Fold:
Amino acid sequence: MRFFAIFIIGVLCSFFLFPISFTFLPGINTKMFLAVFGAAWFLFERLPEGGLSFSKELLGALGLSTVFSLVCFFAADYNGTVDYSYATYIFSAIVWLFSAYAIIAFIRQIHGTVNLRLLTLYLAGVCLFQCVIALVMDRVEVVKSIVNAYVNIDQNFFTKVDRLYGIGAALDPAGVRFSIVLILIAIVLSKNVRVQQNKGTIAYLILSFLIIIGLGNMISRTTTIGAVLGVLILALSAGLEHFIIKRSMLKTYGILLGFLCALVPIGIYLYQTDDFFHEQIRFAFEGFFNWVEGGTWETGSTNKLNAVMWVWPEDFKTWLIGTGRFGLYEFSTDIGYCRFILYCGLIGFSIFSIFMIYHPIVLYKRFYNYRFAFLCLAVLTFVIWVKVATDIFFIYALFYWIEKEDEEADILSEEDEEEEIHEEYENNLLYSGDI
Structure:
């Protein structure tokens, strides 16, 4: 029964992270179902306690999202359009918050607590499944037909662009989510004591990390951003800037090396013998192949972005309050910076930027030992806007419902970390004969 409950939570996490709508219920996605359930659960839990209370941090987030929505509404109204894409952002934020509450409540119900370790284990499993099912669907027509029969998917579009897709996981939105999970995996491997003491958990997370990088890039090359940030976290957390590897990370690096020795030869073999994998691997790591073969790191999509998609306002009014139009085809650009400014001007874009900086700052203080993860999430937001107009509030919505106390017994303390670095550094000096 416990295994079944964990499986159900995994399915619900997939419905949250990669919302889908079913062919028999068009117009209603799984995120909405979770939000209704989460709101009901929230009322059931909080009303008997004497009231519906929110943290000051969460109220601040809702306040900023309200201001941003009002600015976007004004931009649309002032310009005489009916494009309210982000004028209703406050409602979208509330839906994300209560759907996140449902996920956190389910995890707490089964495990008795909720922390970043447990959440990352579930999200890693979801992304691992999406990567594998995308590959299976492309290679096994029966599986693809079953999924397409029940899940609303634009089959004509994906056939035209010839891209892998999972169950709700496709293109840049999937790459953004893969990037987030890669960052979380890296920080949990680096900072969580319980993970560092369990070889099975380390192996599961590292295998997920490597497969998401490989197959995730075949689905969306935006995954590369998370891969770079994740590797950076692992390198800095291991103490490599001090030219050492901390004892707590030796097991992790040993298992990582073992998986690399096994997976890299498999990848090379498939690249050389299988036409499908040859094409997909070249697409996933096009920048790397171009760099090795031509000396320039570039991809077809980035060349297109740089050539034609940097579209800016042409008058002061548009710079200030935008055009009230957010649609892709009005300005023929995917770039987030351009689309937000063209929609609601520098006023709206500035408020939205403050909104996206607000969350990592608040959570940085609440979960101080995981602070590097929130720094990387902030960087991720502003990097992905170079490529696509989206945001990652959904992941912050989960963190707002995790209590600080649930983390304290589950992470490596600052004192222990500093002591380990100092001890390893002195041992290296002693070994080299410097002292």
Notes: The radius of gyration is 23 Å.
